[in-house]
Amino acid sequence: MSELDHLVVAAADLAECARWVEERLGVAMDAGGRHEVFGTHNCVLSLGPDCYLEVIAVDPQAPAPGRARWFELDTAAMRARLAGGPALVHWVVRVPSFAGERHVMELSRGSNRWALTVAPDGRMPLGGIAPSRILWRTPPPATFLLDKGIRLDTLSISTPDVAALRLLVADVVGPVSVRPGDSGLAATFSTPSGPAAIGGPTGVG
């Protein structure tokens, strides 16, 4: 069994990405930090006690990493996509253990420690619509981030191959649905100011 851990919104610029989310959800994001291994930095937002939202971008002040950045941030296709603005690009599920997963990286920042499936070339499973898997060695961020009243209602995954993806995510606990269509992610939220949404088919924020 796995549980929805967090959503990933990427952008060419972190401050722009945080503003973009704030405009849609109506609350300010919390500072995250830097990921030295990947040359990225992030901000985070609680979606309740079980999951959270991460916004991430290449850190312009960081040296070039010795490997491909995660979430395909080095690829020409992702750079072109993010040139049009921030986008909901991926999602991550929390697991109690790994069972034969390849390319697991042990990572840490401050007091946080976790293991995450990351391909050597930075590619996301099925272009981002299938989840990466995370095993927290320390308490997950969702358990201690400041609750600002935002809740994830649905994560809707569209794909041309509904049957295959439904089989792949059958063990995921959380508000996840799979529907036919062009590949993409869309999320709906309840906020203090009313319903909100981000995402859509690949190439649309």
Give me some keywords for this one.
mainly beta; 205 residues; four-stranded mixed sheet; 2,3-Dihydroxybiphenyl 1,2-Dioxygenase, domain 1; single chain; 13% helix
Radius of gyration: 16 Å
The overall pLDDT, averaged over residues, is: 94
Helical content (DSSP H or I, runs of 4+): 10-25%
The figure for the number of domains is 1
**Structural class based on helices, strands and sheet pairing:** mainly beta
CATH topology tier name? 2,3-Dihydroxybiphenyl 1,2-Dioxygenase, domain 1
Specify the number of helices.
3
What pattern of helices and strands is seen along the backbone?
EHEEEHEEEEEHEEEE
Number of strands: 13
Oligomer: single chain
Q: Which CATH class applies here?
A: Alpha Beta
The rough form would be described as: globular
Biggest sheet, open or closed, and with what strands and sense? 9 strands, mixed
Strand content: 35-45%
Which spans of ≥5 residues are poorly predicted at pLDDT below 50?
none
Ends apart, CA distance between termini = 29 Å
Q: Tell me what the CATH architecture is.
A: Roll
Question: What does this protein structure show overall?
Answer:
- The chain has one domain (2-147): Roll (2,3-Dihydroxybiphenyl 1,2-Dioxygenase, domain 1).
- It is 13% helix and 42% strand.
- The chain contains three helices and 13 strands.
- The relative contact order is 0.21.
- The mean pLDDT is 94.
